[in-house]
Design a protein that fits this description.
Layout (H helix, E strand, L loop, with lengths): L8 E7 L1 H13 L4 E4 L12 E6 L3 H18 L1
Antiparallel strand pairs: 1-3, 2-3
Length: 77
Amino acid sequence: MTGGDRVSTVYLGQYSAETANDIAAELEALGIVWWYKAPGVFSRVWERGVRLFVDRERLSEARTIADRVVAIRNSAG
């Protein structure tokens, strides 16, 4: 991306911090723009994880990555 490029992000999902980190690493490796919102001090009461957002244009690819990472983590635990 260049400095003038704009990216519109969309919600990917809410994950544990560990799972979100694994997903983010794979997104970065593929050059998919992403950001996160972690629960704050008070919102931890009702928010149970990190919310990830990704480039709207690459949502399908990001979902595939997230689904795979979640499946791997679920089968390991």
